[in-house]
């Protein structure tokens, strides 16, 4: 009887080693790590918003609508609980993505205001914030790209045989990924430079 139990244990070990469970766990952790970096960069951008708005306000008081839009968009981004579980909920993920897109659009409108204010464009504080925002947008793009690759690898593992059987047994489901509404627009790097810095 003891020999039979050892044979069953050995067979289970052999079957489990090829089932993909560890690979699913590893890929899931990669997705979580990549997601944390995405959130980190989006938070960095959100943290720049108040200083940027206040700097532009100092030169362009009459642009109240733009300030209100940016502040409201930032508030909507902040109201979404960006937990690691969000990547397992396609609807919540879509809401998060829409809020981030809205904030990005509002920031673009805010930066476009600077075109009408030469003194603002030459302000050292504004130029510094502008450079920080540009760097942050680039970091967001890199973090999103890493997340996209991590989700792709995870989803392939979840859907591939025989790991798909293990995924079904343990409840691993495909994760949502970033979508692009206008691929040509997103392919362009963010434009936040309004001319020579010495002007």
Layout of secondary structure:
Blueprint: H1 2-17, H2 21-59, H3 64-79, H4 90-113, H5 118-122, H6 124-159, H7 163-170, H8 183-187
Can you describe what's shown?
The protein is elongated. By secondary structure, it is an all-alpha fold. The relative contact order is 0.15. The termini are far apart. The C terminus is likely disordered. It is built from eight helices and no strands. 75% of the residues lie in helices and 0% in strands. The protein has a domain of 119 residues: LemA-like domain (de novo design (two linked rop proteins), Up-down Bundle). Helix 2 runs parallel beside helix 4.
The total strand number stands at 0
Low-confidence stretches: 182-190, 192-199
Report the top-level CATH class of the domain at 30-140 and 180-187. Mainly Alpha
Number of helices: 8
Category by helix and strand content? mainly alpha
CATH topology of the domain at 30-140 and 180-187: de novo design (two linked rop proteins)
The helix-strand sequence is HHHHHHHH
Tell me the CATH architecture of the domain at 30-140 and 180-187.
Up-down Bundle
The percent range for strand residues is under 5%
